[in-house]
Amino acid sequence: MFFILSPLFFFQTNIYSQQFTKITSEDIVNDGAYSEGTYWVDINSDGYPDLFVANIVNQNNLLYVNNKDGTFTKITTGNIVNDGGFSYGGCFGDFNGDGFDDIYVINGGANSPSQKFYYQNNGNSTFVKITTGLFVTDVSGAWGSSAVDYDKDGNLDIFVANFNTTNNLYKGKGNSTFTKILTGILVTDPGSSITPVWCDYNNDGNTDLFVANSNFSSGLANFLYRNDGNGNFTKITSGEIVTDIANSTGATWGDIDNDGDFDLFVTNYFNVNNYLYINNGNSTFTKNTSSVVANDGGSSTGSTFGDVDNDGDLDLFVANDNNENNCLYLNDGTGVFTKVTTGSVVNNGGRSNGSGFADYDLDGDLDLFVTNGNQPVVQNNFLYNNNGNQNKFVNIKCFSISNNTSSIGTRVKVVTMINGNRKTQTREIFGQTGYNAQNELSVHFGLSDATVIDSVIIDWHASSPQRQVFTNVEVNKFYTVIQGNSITSITNENEFTTGKFSLRQNYPNPFNPETNISFSLSRKGKTSLKVFDITGKEVMKLSDEELNEGYYTYKINMRNFPSGIYFYRLETGNSFISKKMILIK
Questions:
Q1: Residue 363 clears pLDDT 80, i.e. is over it
Q2: CA 191 – CA 177 distance, rounded (Å)
Q3: How far is CA 577 from CA 6, 101, 455, 516, in A?
Q4: Residue 478, SS3?
Q5: Spatial distance between the Cα atoms of 327 and 304, rounded to a whole number of angstroms
Q6: Please, are residues 397 and 445 in contact by the beta-carbon 8 Å criterion?
Q7: How far apart are CA 53 and CA 158, in angstroms?
Q8: Count of CA atoms in the C-beta half-sphere (13 A) of 387
Q9: Arithmetic mean of pLDDT over the chain
Q10: pLDDT by residue (tens digit) across 503-542?
Q11: 305: CB partners within 8 A, 6+ apart
Q12: 472-497 pLDDT, tens per residue?
């Protein structure tokens, strides 16, 4: 497989009481829309998270492309930002296997049953709208959705949570078409569903489903479905996790105590305390009623876990509606939380909905975006830049060779020595995180004072178990892991230099159909320059001979190749490096 161990850049500052700085300039925090959903996704595969925002009351949705300098450009052309609608949210993922994340948008909710929007990514920040197929033409009061490969066939599927009716499951074919599933408990169980969140809670390799339900009156029980494999599910009917009655708006999974299994936090509306369920490791849960996160009730909507202080454990952000302040809770490493009471992130008020973490400026810490409704007065969305500290980090992007190149469902573990103790942290790549939100699809780990990562363990989400282990990995780096071939390094820098050669980023990039690859050699030697597709298959050999010291440029023409992500690899002696390039037709 390609294991891409590639540094980008980072900086560190001293920690102080203000963990975040609120961004107040630019369109991204001044558009004044009635926003519900927030989605961090790298739509142009340049390594920097971009942002999609879903709006209701027939307002256009919003798309902001990351400028790589801490600012964003608002996209104003194309269907994706001009379709109007009553969009609560959606889900992102590579639904056609071309290496680019597509966008599925749900419309409806309680008051406006509608069709859905599906936008297929062209790879250059533009999209083609698909208008045929039941997955977009079905009319329902859709309130939430999630991308998932529930049957591990390598194709992403879509689950849609509907208000006051049964839910929908669309099985993906890997080519932006879907088959509607008509039988089974997932689509015949009546409810009033708001948020679906998938996670392998019992560690059997199959992704299970929790659904938050609400009728916004007397309350409902939530759903938990165990995935038994082969597309079969069993509804769990015992335990407080499925018998508690409330108006639950969202949920998010996370291993808050670093014991290797995933716990569940559920947000509730109407001034009812939120729920925290601790995974017992035997397919059951214990409800925690003593934690501050379970005794701080309000009108909670969104929630998301992330290690905001890079100390090696998952912290929790909770978004609240009805002009209540939002909440941030810091984890002590054992699953015990302390509420943060200072700083703009917890003192802004607002009508907050979806919330998501991403390291949008690639400085090694998690930044935060929060959507807000704008009624009865205009309320802008929130963007908070993390000020960082001296703690270490690692950020890992997984790239599957299946059609699910987004690697949703893949699990990553990082083992390190932190404060003198060996600690294993576990993340799963989710297709939905809390109420109408999606964190960036790479996984971020805080490492505190760790000087080296003992091991990175990746369990790929596939039909047969596929585990890969990498040892003695450097900290404070961004890595990409491409499933399937040998270990190599790919960076987003313009040039990579060793003592033997330098390799430049191809230009132009993206390209169609010609591009130039340049490198220089500091000494004479056998030199290989090859191009590979996303599966690791060699598709072009540019050089495989002895070359003299000097500077070389190869112009390549990929007219006969399909659009997608490719990699070029330069090797001389025992040194090698690879880079990513994008062909768009």
A1: yes
A2: 27
A3: 10, 25, 22, 17
A4: strand
A5: 11
A6: no
A7: 19
A8: 13
A9: 90
A10: 888 888 778 899 999 998 888 889 999 998 877 788 999 9
A11: 252, 253, 254, 256, 265, 314, 315, 316, 433
A12: 999 998 888 878 554 444 444 445 55
Quick check: 583 and 507 in contact, CB under 8 A?
no
Q: What is the mean pLDDT of residues 172-193?
A: 96
pLDDT tens-digit map of 307-316: 999 999 999 9
The DSSP code sequence of 95-117 is: SSSSSS-EEEEEEBTTT--B--E
Residues 195 and 251: beta-carbon distance below 8 Å: yes
Instruction: Give yes or no for residue 47 having a pLDDT over 90.
Output: no
Strand-pair partners of 577: 570
CA 558 to chain centre: 31
Six-digit token string for 75: 């996209």
d(C-alpha 278, C-alpha 315), whole Å: 15
For the chain, counts of helices (H) and of strands (E) = 3, 45
SS (H, E, C) 424-471: EEEEECCCCCCCCEECCCCEEEEEECCCCEEEEEEEECCCCCEEEEEE
DSSP label at residue 186: H
* Beta-sheet strands, E only, within 8-61: 20-22, 35-41, 50-55
Strand, helix or coil for residue 299 = coil
Token pair for 171: 């099985």
Which residue matches tokens 């409806």?
A: 108
pLDDT of 258 > 90? The answer is yes
- Beta-strand pair 300-306/285-287: unpaired
Distance CA 476, CA 433 (A): 25
Return the SS3 of 81: helix
* Claim: this prediction has a pTM higher than 0.85: yes
